[in-house]
Design a protein that fits this description.
715 residues, three-stranded antiparallel beta sheet, 14 helices
């Protein structure tokens, strides 16, 4: 290391004194993207965050933004479809459609997707809430573009001025220990794409650098107040099941499931980042990549020794090195660069490594930022993830107010300076501008940033799949659009829980869509004064869910006043029972759903007198006497032994009011809701419409649906 340090020209410099170059405005639209693959995080483990973060909102660890499914948090999909079994999630804001369970997707209602990194558009390298906070409230000159997940691809990288890789992601707000201070700023890491044989898969990135692109490689400091920051940032990618979430490619079932999980430690990531930097910066006259920068084993550049021989850590501001200055009123001024816990970097000048930003301590020769030019572009290395607004904006203001006691700047001014907006604007617009690189504006594809809102309609970044519509036709929609069209989504439930398959999302060419059956919808007419029950046909060729929607009453459990009859026409409404009890029949009686003349009697008591008994609904003598010259025979009609099977015990059945041996169980035509729903079993013969079990027949009666008795013991 000492040998290398001797080769270094030295990065010691005076700290910022307030006369550094500042742009009149740093707000801008510099397009950036993230190179590689971002570490996995489960949806359930993410701390949600608001769609529109307010300035310093992240300083409140107990704010509404941490409560999970809050209506103002960033989400994709319709928040009014966020339901649970007992209550509606957003009462007063949404009107729940109680007919949803009868839509073709049934209980697979596509709930909205709340996220920071784990989005339905793909896994993101940066929290969009954090980036939006930086842009809206802290004058960021950078705007994430990339593809639908903010990543660079070989096809779109030419559309960007800067590409970032490494320890670049920061959670919104104070969510982890140490977030209160600008120490270890990264929560997410994005690793370079797999290099392949001889790292040839990196060649397209190297070519972009040569054309004028600037690749920024961010690592984490080896040491800090809480130990090594690089140990905090690890990479994990699960197996193929997770990769299905992007619905990418017709062959993804085979490719995805063959992939194994990958885990990398912080040290392994550091080695990978450096190898990537060496390769991307290889000049055409170099046969092999060279080590043009090394990470110092010395303490962070922000460590100072006081008069009592104690080491202190303090954020500091330093300057860009010559020739990276900007003309201002005839003077060439350095730009300010704020840092916290940065590992010193050693530029290897003999291999093209050069200093870009100095060191807070003039006695040290290590640098904070080092670069190597390659063609019209360059590779830039910094080992401190706190040097951009993604981290600085999330550090609570109290920290900067504490720092302000040692500065002439206020807390807000210090926090704004820590975003290094002037430096990043310089890197985007003026660094190596003489080379003439201009990002292309065509052929860039769809960007996440342009489609990230909560609107799920016509969002080209959301994964689509075949959607079977009720009439049997097919269209390719995302899960929410498919549900809204009353369709059945044929995508993978790994992509969205509303899907029907475990494989990749399928096209209409891959599926067969069967039409949903239609039938008659009959609704009972209200008759508060009694009388016979009448029915109105609400439609003779409607779907079950249409019958529900047309009904005058729908309960919270999804039951409705209409009766839907699969495959039948309106004539079935005239066949419905005209009574439920005698109260519907006036002077007549209700038997088997029809009003008929009432019997003279129902029991012996109705006949009065000791010798008058009720037989077949008529009163007659209970005793018949026959007299002969020698014998008197008395015949008495016996009292009924039973009225139902339970009167006869377990071995006998009630037949014609007498206990006799039971015949074999038979199926009976279903009497709608004659038994409570919980007594229904799932064995139906023949099967109920659409394969519904008998419990649904109880709720939506159909005369053609028969069920075994509730006590039937299936084979």
């Amino acid at each position: 290391m000492n040998t290398h340090r001797l080769c270094c020209c030295g990065c010691g410099n005076k700290p910022c004194v307030g006369d550094e170059f500042r742009y009149p405005s740093t707000s801008g639209s510099c397009a950036i993207c993230a190179l590689g693959e971002t570490s996995y995080s489960a949806i359930e483990s993410e701390v949600p965050a608001p769609s529109f973060p307010q300035k310093e909102q992240g300083s409140d660890p107990g704010g509404d933004w941490i409560t999970g499914r809050h209506p103002e948090n960033l989400s994709t999909g319709n928040i009014c479809w966020e339901t649970n079994p007992t209550e509606y999630s957003y009462p007063g804001e949404c009107d729940q459609d109680y007919c949803w369970p009868h839509w073709p997707m049934g209980n697979k209602i596509p709930k909205p997707w709340y996220y920071q990194y784990s989005s339905p558009q793909g896994h993101l390298p940066w929290s969009p809430q954090v980036f939006k906070d930086w842009i809206d409230n802290w004058e960021s000159p950078l705007v994430p573009k990339g593809d639908c997940s903010m990543h660079c691809t070989e096809e779109n990288i030419g559309c960007h001025s800067l590409a970032f890789v490494g320890a670049v992601g920061r959670d919104y707000g104070v969510s982890n220990f140490g977030d209160e201070m600008p120490v270890c700023g990264a929560d997410k890491v994005t690793v370079p794409p797999e290099g392949g044989e001889n790292n040839q898969n990196w060649e397209w990135i190297r070519n972009w650098v040569k054309s004028g692109g600037k690749l920024v490689i961010m690592g984490e400091a080896k040491d800090s107040l809480f130990g090594s920051c690089m140990n905090r940032v690890g990479f994990f990618r699960p197996g193929g099941w997770y990769d299905l979430r992007d619905c990418s490619g017709p062959d993804c079932p085979e490719n995805s499931f063959s992939e194994s999980s990958i885990s990398l430690s912080g040290n392994q990531i550091t080695e990978l980042l450096l190898d990537f930097a060496y390769y991307a910066a290889r000049n055409d006259d170099e046969e092999e990549p060279t080590e043009w920068v090394q990470v110092s084993d010395e303490p962070p550049i922000n460590q100072f020794e006081n008069d009592n021989d104690l080491f202190l850590y303090q954020s500091c501001c330093q300057k860009t090195k010559t020739p990276f200055k900007m003309e201002d009123d005839g003077d060439n001024k350095s730009l300010p660069f704020h840092c916290s816990y940065s590992s010193g970097l050693i530029p290897m000048s003999q291999h093209g490594g050069k200093p870009l930003v100095g060191h807070c301590n003039s006695e040290e020769k290590t640098c904070t930022v080092v670069y190597k030019k390659n063609g019209a572009g360059a590779v830039v290395v910094v080992f401190d993830s706190d040097v951009w607004g993604i981290s600085a904006t999330q550090t609570p203001i109290w920290w900067w107010e504490q720092e302000a006691q040692l500065s002439d700047l206020s807390g807000d001014e210090l926090k704004l300076r820590a975003c290094n907006n002037d430096f990043w604007k310089f890197m985007c617009e003026d660094f190596l501008s003489e080379e003439g690189y201009i990002p292309q504006t065509t052929g860039c594809g769809t960007s996440y940033w342009d489609t990230m809102g909560s609107d799920y309609t016509n969002n080209t970044c959301l994964p689509t799949s075949a959607c079977c519509l009720p009439d049997g036709s097919c269209t390719e929609l995302n899960a929410w659009e498919c549900f809204e069209e009353k369709g059945r989504w044929k995508g993978s439930y790994a992509t969205h829980p509303s899907g029907e398959t475990t494989g990749c999302c399928r096209t209409c060419n891959d599926v067969v869509c069967d039409p949903i059956p239609t039938g008659a919808c009959c609704e009972r007419n209200p008759n508060p004064s009694g009388g016979k029950i009448t029915y109105t046909c609400l439609g003779g060729d409607v779907y079950n869910f249409e019958c529900c929607s047309a009904s005058s009453e729908v309960n919270e459990n999804g039951s409705f006043s209409g009766l839907w009859f699969n495959g039948q026409d309106c004539s079935v409404c005239d066949e419905q029972p005209e009574c439920e009890s005698d109260s519907n029949c006036g002077d007549q009686c209700c038997e088997s759903g029809e009003c008929v003349d009432c019997p003279e009697c129902q029991n012996d008591e109705d006949c009065g007198g000791e010798n008058s008994c009720c037989q077949d609904g008529e009163c007659g003598d209970c005793t018949t006497t026959t007299t002969t010259t020698t014998t008197t025979t008395t015949t008495t009609t016996p009292e009924p032994e039973c009225t139902e099977d339970s009167d006869c015990g377990e071995e006998l059945c009630c037949v014609d009011s007498m206990c006799e041996d039971c015949d074999d169980p038979v199926t009976t035509t279903w009497n709608p809701c004659a038994e409570p729903a919980e007594s229904c079993l799932e064995w139906c013969d023949p099967p109920c419409p659409q394969g519904e079990c008998c419990i649904l027949c109880c709720q939506y009666p159909n005369p053609d649906c028969t069920c075994f008795p509730w006590n039937f013991d299936p084979p």
